Amino acid sequence: MRQEHQLYHASLEAVDDQSINPSTAPSLDSMVNQSRRNLLKGSLAVAAFGFFGGNLLLSREAVAGTSPLLGFKGVAAQTSSTFDRVIVAPGYTAKAFFSWGDAVLDGAPAWQPDASDDWQAQLQQAGDNHDGMHFFPFAQAPNSRGLLVINHEYINPTLHPQGLTFTQDATGAKQRPIDQVRKEQAAHGISIIEVRRDALGAWQRVATSAYNRRISGMTPINIAGPLKADARMKTLSDPSGTQVLGTLNNCSMGVTPWGTYLACEENFHNYFVNRDAEDYQQRAEHRRYGIGSGLSSVYYAWESVDARFDATPYAGQQHNGHCNEPNRFGWVVEIDPFDPDSTPVKRTAMGRLGRECSVLSLHANGGMALYSGDDSRGEYVYKFVPQGRFDPAQPQANRLLLDAGTLYAARFNADGSGEWLALVWGENGLTAENGFADQQAVLLNARGAADVLQATPMDRPEWVAVHPQSLEVYVTLTNNPERGERFAVDAANPRPDNLHGQILRWNEAGGDPTATRFTWELFLLAGDQPGALDNEGQPIPEHLTGTIKGDIFSSPDGLAFDAGGRLWIQTDSDEDAAHTTNTGCNQLLCADPVSREVRRFLVGPWGAEITGLTWTPDYRSMWINVQHPGISYPASDGTSRPRSTTVLITKDDGGVIGT
Ligand code: FEO
Ligand code: CA
Ligand code: CA
User: Fold this and answer.
1) Percent of the chain, pLDDT > 70?
2) Neighbours of ion ligand 3 (CB under 5 A)
3) Residues lining ligand 1, judged by CB closer than 6 Å?
4) Which of 200, 433, 530, 616 has a CA 20 to 30 Å removed from the CA of 392?
5) Which atom of ligand 1 is nearest to the CA of 478?
6) Predicted confidence (pLDDT) per residue in 482-521, tens digit
7) Band of the pLDDT at 23, cuts 50, 70, 90?
C-alpha cells in the first residue's frame, strides 16, 4: 500500500505511514553531516575488508551503462498524469493475466463491471489489490505448470458500485452496511490459481483446477507456536484461543524450503478499535500497534456490524469480549498451496509486527533466517532464526521449524557494523518490570521489546531480498518524511525529510544467516540525480537527490533477486507529489549489485503501485502486480475498467528475463 493513496483522498485518511513508534529525537544538521561522513567511511572500511568477497570487489564501482548483468534496453520514466499503460523494455511483452474479480473457484459467478457482485461471489473470485506472490512449480513440468499464489492486501472504494458507504450513529461512531463489510472481508486474503502453458506455449489460468482456492478475511486459520491457546489469544467467539477467522492486509510474503507460502499481515491495526481510553493507554499490544482509539477503527469501521473488530474490553463478557482479537493479527500465515484442504497456520513464534514480508536465507548447512520489515515510520528490521535446521530428508520435522526459534531486531551502528538483538524474555530488560510478563508478551509486543533493546528505527522497512549466491541481504526503506524531526537522522537513515527512500544491504558474520553480527552499508539513496532540475528549471533540493547510478526512482518497496543475481526493485511512490516530478509513474527496475547500476525495465500506469514479482524456475516467465491502477489500464479481459491485475511478462525470443 502506498503512503498517500490517492483513491482514498476523497473520503479516507492515508493509513500506511502513520508513526506509532514513540521514539523522538532532535533534528541536528551536524548529525546529518556526521552520518553522511560515517556512511562514506563505513562503506570504504567495509569494502576494504571484502564486503562481497574477493573477486567481486574489483568491479564494485563500474560505470553506469556497462553492466554485463543488465541485458536489456531501459525505458523512459513516464511523468504524464494521463499515462495509462504498462511499458516494458524492447523485446519484451507484458500482458494482463489475472484481475480483481476473475474467477478463482470453478463455477464462480462472472465479475460484474458495475461491481454489483455480492460477497458470496467475491469469495469465489480474485480479491483486490494484488501484492506479494509466488509461483510454485509442479515437479513434472516446472516451467509450464504451477500454482500462482497471490496476496490481496486491502480494498479499493471501487469494490462497491458507489464506493464505501459510511454513516454515523448518534454517538458519532462510523457505521457500515453489512453487505459491504462482508464483501470487503471476502476481497482480502489470498488467491491460489493453477496456471499452465497451452499447446501454443501461452500461459492460461486453469479454471477447473482442484488446487484453485480463495483464503479470505473469513477463512478459519489455526494458531500455532507459543501463543496457541494462550489467554491473550482467547476471545468471546474463540474461547480456546486456537483458531482465528481470516488473514488481513497480506502485503509481501515469503517461501519456505519445504514448499509452503508465508503470507504476511501488515497494516492490521486499521481494522480494530478500542474505545476505552484508559485501557488503551495501558494495553501495549493495542497502543504500540496503533489500532483505533476513538469511536471507530482507523479505517474500515467493520466493528459497526461485526463485533469481533471491536476490541474494547467490555465488562462481563467472557475473555473481555473481543479485546484480544487484534492480538490474533500481525503474524506470518503459513499456507500449503498443494494441499487445498489444509488449514493455514499463524506462526506466533515469529513475533507480531506490522509485517511486510518474511524472506528466507538458507545456508547449505540447513541453518536459516527469515527476514521481515515492519513497515511504519521508525519501525524495525527483524529476523527469525528457527531453533532447528532444514533437512530435506525430514519433511514432517520441517513443518514444525517455524514454531520454535529466536526473534531478533536489528541495530545498525554508525561504523558499518550491526547487531541482532535477541527478543528473549528475561534478558536485557525484557522483564516484568518493563511490561513483559513472559516470552509470549515479548512476541505479542515485539515492537515494544525492540524499543527496550534499542533497535534502530528505520525509514519504513518494506521488502527484503537475499542474494542467491552470497546470501547478502538487501532491504528497501521506502521513505520517511519525519526523519530529522520525530526520528533522528543516523547512518542507516541519513536524510532528513526522506521522501525518496533508500536500499541498505548487509552481510551476516561468516556468511551465516543465524549470526548475531553483521556488516552493512547503504546500497543507494533513491531520488533525483545531483544537479537535476525540476519541470520549472529550478534545481532539485539536495535532500531530494540520491546516489543512483542510472535510472532514477522514488520509494523502493518490492525487492527480489533472480537466480542470475539481478536485483529487481519495485516502487510505490505518490506520482501526484511535487518531489516525484521526474520519477513519474511507479516502475520496475533492475540493479547490478556489483556495479550498482540501475536500469528501468517497466513503467506502470498512473495511479498504480508496482508490486509482487515471481518467475518460473527457468526465469523465462515473470509475473508482477499492478495494484490499484487509476485511469484506464485494461484488466485481464482487455476491455473493462481498471482493476488490480497480475501481469505476465515474457521475452519475445523466449529467453531469460533481463538478459
Ligand atoms: Fe503494504 Fe508496506 O506495503
Ligand atoms: Ca509501500
Ligand atoms: Ca509494500
Assistant:
1) 91
2) 462, 557
3) 1, 153, 251, 266, 356, 375, 462
4) 616
5) 2
6) 999 999 999 999 999 999 999 999 999 999 999 999 999 9
7) low
Helices (H), 10-124: 29-48, 54-57, 119-122
Task: Spell out the residues 6+ positions from residue 368 whose beta carbon is closer than 8 angstroms to its own.
Answer: 257, 360, 361, 362, 385, 386, 389, 390, 401, 513, 514
pLDDT in tens, 581-596: 999 999 999 999 999 9
Instruction: Please provide residue 638's backbone torsions phi and psi, each rounded to the nearest 5 degrees.
Output: 85, -10
Q: What would you report as the CA-atom Rg of the chain, rounded to the nearest whole angstrom?
A: 23
* Residue 520 · residue 506 · CB < 8 Å: yes
Q: Which residue, chain included where needed, has cell 503459513?
A: 334
CB 474 within 8 A of CB 504: yes
Angle (CA) 461-233-429 rounded to 5° is 60
Residue found under cell 515479548: 442
pLDDT at 404 over 80: yes
Ligand nearest to the CA of 613: 3
Measured between alpha carbons, how far is residue 557 from residues 80, 251, 457 in Å?
22, 11, 17
Yes or no: say if 545 and 527 are a contact pair by the CB < 8 Å rule.
yes
CA–CA gap between residue 481 and residue 458 (Å, rounded): 12
Rounded-to-integer distance, Cα 184 and Cα 192, Å: 18
Bridge partners, residue 373, by sequence: 381
Ligand 1: residue whose CA is nearest its atom 1: 1
The atom of ligand 1 lying closest to the CA of 356 is 2
- Interval 83-98: pLDDT, tens: 999 999 999 999 999 9
Ligand 2 geometric centre to CA of 502 (Å): 13
Q: Whose CA is nearest to atom 3 of ligand 1?
A: 1
